[in-house]
UniProtKB/TrEMBL annotation:
One of its GO terms (biological process) is DNA replication. The gene is lig2. PANTHER family: DNA LIGASE 1/3 FAMILY MEMBER (PTHR45674), DNA LIGASE-RELATED (PTHR45674:SF13). Coiled coil: none annotated. The keyword Ligase applies. PROSITE patterns: DNA_LIGASE_A1, DNA_LIGASE_A3. Its EC number is 6.5.1.1. It comes from the Bacteria. This is DNA ligase (ATP). GO terms for molecular function: ATP binding; DNA binding; DNA ligase (ATP) activity; metal ion binding.
């Protein structure tokens, strides 16, 4: 763990991409092979499942530190991070043991499903032999909240430098459903020669911030709707059929409607597309699809209420040939040929292309996006390859401006990590007659200077305290942006927002100028108040 902690410290103390890449590459060359595999897994989102809840950790840590629970809780409120609080308050390690990352994580995995006394004993023993950053990192792994702030692309680049394997080849080999506890380093890096159901790294788009005219002739671009669903890949290879999400979750069983595609797609076909809830003609709102996202098994009633469909964007593999480096226009034509040969009753069709003579005409089409249950337009250069990850210049997402309402802050809570001493997480309300009704929370969108200014205001204007939460005077007004709105019986307002964030602090507005619950309901109904 000490070696892994040294890597963490090296990465945490610099923002230089070159320095981070160098530190990772050196680690991948010299660390124990099993530890390298676990590090790749952690940096690509394959964290072990949580085996101890936060309440248990707080109670055990307070006991081990000889502190009353209330004092531990107050320390946690100040530090803002549970693992950091535990690492600072526990007494020094009692041994000089230094388990490897592999040993620590295998022991952690074995605790799954064990009674509390066994999990407590093992956790206390681990804390007693670790110190400093090693103890901090182990505790973060227990909580399931481990982050190293390293993009997967940077990790892949460092791994390529350490192994001599080409970066794009590595990126493909690291995809899929491999498990660090059963995968050797050389097997992972060299691959097994069989692609099986392994997906490709997804190509991502960047937000279009300039005027579209700066992109050149509109005829150089493919325009299609930016659908609001789940990005996925359909894998149909000899002996393998799978559906993967962009987050590398195998979701085949969650969408049994797609099983029939295995009988009709040619062997060696990989398609990139968007999974949507579908009414037979057009997409349903994202809320309909959301009822199925977290379910591993889906009932017939759920399938009937929100049937799934894939709108295909791109063809990545055709007859077993990787065609990602071919121009998009070529890939799209081959995709259209394949889809024309499958029965129209199957839940797979081509995402429609939007044609326009010039940018003003395409801008007018973009304005119709919400009527199509879309978020805006995607613009893809017809000559572009299918990139790995996000590469600016060839793929752009040209989204509509978000919905926006003015609301007042009712509650404030401190953030975590470097924001642990700032109030950054706010609860907002709109007017309902003479009442203020909470309707959403948000924690992003402001500058550090604004968060500092608001924190000072919260300290002066707190009315009540509920643990880390402060109820404040309803005076500060903010413009809240969001992508969608839906009915929700779980919320007091009866509404839930999709991707809420603060667009700006409206210091020019007062409480009596905020929006109303009626205006939000009208927005939900699709009419203007």
């Amino acid at each position: 763990m000490k070696r892994f902690a040294e890597l963490f410290a090296a990465l945490d103390t610099t923002t230089s991409t070159a320095a981070r890449t160098k530190a990772l590459a050196e680690y991948f060359r010299t660390a124990p092979e099993a530890d390298r595999v676990w590090t790749v897994a952690l940096l690509s989102g394959r964290r072990p499942k949580r085996v101890v809840n936060a309440t248990e950790l707080r109670n055990w840590a307070a006991e081990a530190a000889g502190l009353p629970l209330w004092l531990f809780e107050e320390s946690y409120n100040v530090a803002g991070d549970l693992a950091e609080t535990i690492a600072l308050l526990l007494p020094p390690a009692t041994t000089d043991a230094d388990p490897t990352l592999d040993q620590a994580l295998r022991q952690l995995i074995q605790l799954a499903g064990q009674p509390e006394p066994i999990r407590k004993q093992a956790t206390l023993a681990a804390w007693a032999q670790l110190q400093g950053d090693a103890r901090l990192l182990y505790t973060k792994l227990i909580t399931g909240g481990f982050r190293m702030g390293v993009a997967q692309g940077l990790m892949t680049r460092a791994l390529a430098q350490a192994t001599g394997v080409e970066e794009t080849t590595l990126a493909h080999r690291l995809m899929g459903d491999w498990k660090p506890e059963t995968t050797g380093f050389h097997a992972l890096i060299e691959g097994d020669g069989q692609q099986g159901a392994r997906p490709y790294p997804f190509a991502l788009a960047s937000p279009l911030e300039a005027e579209p005219e700066t992109l050149g002739p509109v005829t150089d671009w493919l325009a299609e709707w930016k659908w609001d669903g789940i990005r996925g890949q359909i894998i149909a290879r000899p002996g393998a059929f799978a559906v993967w999400s962009r987050g590398e979750d195998l979701i085949t069983d969650r969408f049994p409607e797609f099983a029939a595609l295995a009988d009709f797609l040619p062997p060696g076909t990989v398609i990139d597309g968007e999974i949507l809830a579908w009414d037979g003609v057009a997409p349903l709102p994202f809320a309909a699809l959301q009822t199925r996202i977290t379910r591993k098994t889906v009932s017939k009633a759920q399938m009937a209420k929100a049937p799934a469909h894939i709108l295909a964007y791109d063809l990545l593999e055709d007859a077993g040939e990787d065609i990602r480096q071919q121009p998009l226009a070529h890939r799209r034509a081959r995709l259209a040929t394949i889809l024309a040969q499958i029965p129209p009753s199957l839940p797979l069709s081509l995402s429609p292309q939007i044609t326009a003579q010039d940018w003003p005409e395409l801008t007018a089409e973009r304005a119709k996006a919400r009527d199509k249950q879309a978020e805006g337009l995607m613009l893809k250069r017809l000559s572009s390859p299918y990139h790995q990850g996000r590469k600016r210049g060839d793929w752009w997402k040209w989204k509509l401006d978000p919905y926006a309402v003015d609301a007042v802050m009712l509650y404030a809570q401190a953030g975590h990590g470097r924001r642990a001493n700032l109030y950054t997480d706010y609860t907002f309300a709109v007017r309902d007659g003479n009442d203020l009704v909470p309707f959403t929370k948000a924690y992003s969108g402001l500058t550090d200077a604004e968060f500092n200014q608001i924190t000072a205001w919260v300290n002066r204007n707190t009315l009540e305290r509920f643990g880390p939460v402060r109820r404040v005077k309803p005076e500060l007004v903010f413009e809240i942006g969001f992508e969608g709105i839906q009915a929700s019986p779980r919320h007091k307002s009866g509404l839930a927002l999709r991707f809420p964030r603060m667009l700006r602090w409206r210091q020019d507005k007062a409480l009596d100028q905020i929006d109303t619950l009626e205006s939000l309901r009208a927005l939900l109904a699709g009419t203007k108040p």
